[in-house]
Amino acid sequence: MIDNNMTSSARLTTLRFSLLIATAFVLPVLLQAQQTVEGWQALLKNDLQQAKQLLTQATSSDPKDARAWFGLVYEASIRGDDSSSWAALHKALRSVPDQAPYLYASMSTARFGAALNKPSWGAVDVLNEVVDNPDASGILLAMAYERLGSIDESKERIKDARSKFEKIGALLDWRIVGPFDNISGSGHDKVFPPERSDDTGAVYKNANGGMIRWQHPPVQRLDLWIDFTYFSSTHRGQFYSVAYVKSPTQQRVQMRLGTSGSFKLFVNDRSIRETFEEFNNDLDTYITECTLNEGWNKVLVKVGASDLDRCNFLLRITDERGRPIDNLTINTQPQVFKSQNPDPRVITNPYITFFTERIASNPDHLENYLLLAEAYLRNDNVQEAILVLRKARLVAPECILIDNLFLEAYNRSDRSDDATAMIEHISSVAPGLPLTLMYRFNEAVSQDRNDDADSILSIVKRRDSTSTTYYESAMLIAQRKSDLQRFTELLNEAFARYPGNYLYASLSATMSEQASQGPQKSIDIMKRNLAVNVSFRGLESLARFYVEAGDLSSALSTYDRLFALVPPGCGFHSSIADIYIDKKEWGNALASIDRAIAIAPNISAFWYKRGVIQKSLGKKDAAIVDLQRSLDIDPSNFETRELIRDLKGDPHPFTYFPSADVDSIIRSAPDASAYPNDAAVYLYDAKRRVVYDGSRCEIQREYVARILTIRVSTILRRSIFRQTAVSW
Length: 728
Known about the structure:
alpha+beta, Jelly Rolls, Serine Threonine Protein Phosphatase 5, Tetratricopeptide repeat, disordered N terminus
């Protein structure tokens, strides 16, 4: 309230004082905001040093300046400084009203991955905070459990890992079959028999023309992903998984799916979601609301891979907050269900929506474009990321922060020419970045410009002589120079500094083995590696070295650790069978291969091995049955065909072909004088073909040649040995 009795002079003095006070508070804020704006402008112009200085000053003035922190995130990221990038991100997450969208966009980046491997950095604390205070959609909560479980898994805390993975709430019990034909992804739109009817006793033709049956895997991966790699000899093809879900009431639910591969999702024989593109993505990538009927509901998932190096999926049935639906009963046997429209509705990703809206509100703020692109890239949505980055180009046409994400997008989609053009541009703008240095180094190595490669390596060493980048680059140079001593020195130093690195450990152990230092040295190396970071590859290597040392007990104990870490690891059971086969312990060998078959009955090689074991046990008829099962699954297994013929005493089909009269051919051969300019002459050349089942065939070549020089005689004798019989 203003006192009207005050004099004009007094009122003027009061006004001046008020303005002075206001200026004292507002001016620093304006200056700090100006520093943030100028810092981002420097980033847009690729002046990284100036940007870092201004943005650091801004965060010193206001530790809650999120824009400044995100600027420092990307400034450090382009320099390859994951430590500083994570530190800035950690501060940024504390400076925004809701950290969930930003955490979602960042969770699959190098900065976050590096932080997870360093407990003191605080990334694990961030994930535990998500568990304590779940996000509204439940997406981050599930991802937090997944990553925390993976950390326990890497430390061999299997019980803790299993507990966290189970809280994700994924459907684990499935009946599966495959692979069906999927050449160039063509199987996605083909309707294979499992889509038409569910017959548990059906026998189908697989992608190779062999016979496959439904299987009900007794175990799955610890992290609950249904991984077809373990249940088939190839992951390339179309696979089906079916489960029947009993709901106590009719209810609207969310089907939340993550895949590696293309997919179609069916509920009660109605397709509710699909994509032809093959993506490697995370859980809850595709969220579809639909109706579950009261009683039984059929859920069928079709997943395909032709280009990817894996094929898997994870499905959750949740409410709108991502909480798994209670009181659902799962059964893999066919049940009676109502085939009616589940009324599907696609649920958009809330974090994609968040950054899209932020861009609309602040079209000049580059960080929102970058975060949105990372949110897309984390799920392999390359085209969407590229569209976002093209819009970002309008804000900052020359900014290498945008180029860096373009580069990731191009690498993910195998657009090598575009990736090369992008890295060339980055190199021309910022030749001193670690990214561009390594590009120039690799280019020099590939072009045998050894002096240039050495010069660049010297720069890398000066910057950080203890980085994995330096060690691996220096080892490459030493290898190319055949400098075994230098290579060994670098490897020993790298392993001493990074004992948890499997690559360094396995190389060290292998070189120790080759140097005839005995398997115990290799065992010690792998044990040191596993003490820091447990991996199935490390355990597998350790088991192999134990076998070579003749320590079967320790080898089997190591395999037990493997089975705890990788429950569906049927190949490990097969490896144990090989150990027993070498020792001629046929009973143990049979028990081991039976464990492999119990997990993956549609793998031809397992049945072949079982047939070999049965043969060694003197059970010829049983061996033939197993070998025929192997051949039914894989008609191209000619080794199996040969063994079946041997057991039955049948002659090879080639014996029914007439043979050439070699003596007659030689007698009628022309003299060398008839071919004065030739080193040899073919006198007879014939191919014989045996076709099995109208597809696979064996070819035998028989020829007679007169050799006119000793040199060619040697060549042809080698050639004859290789070409006596060819199978394809």
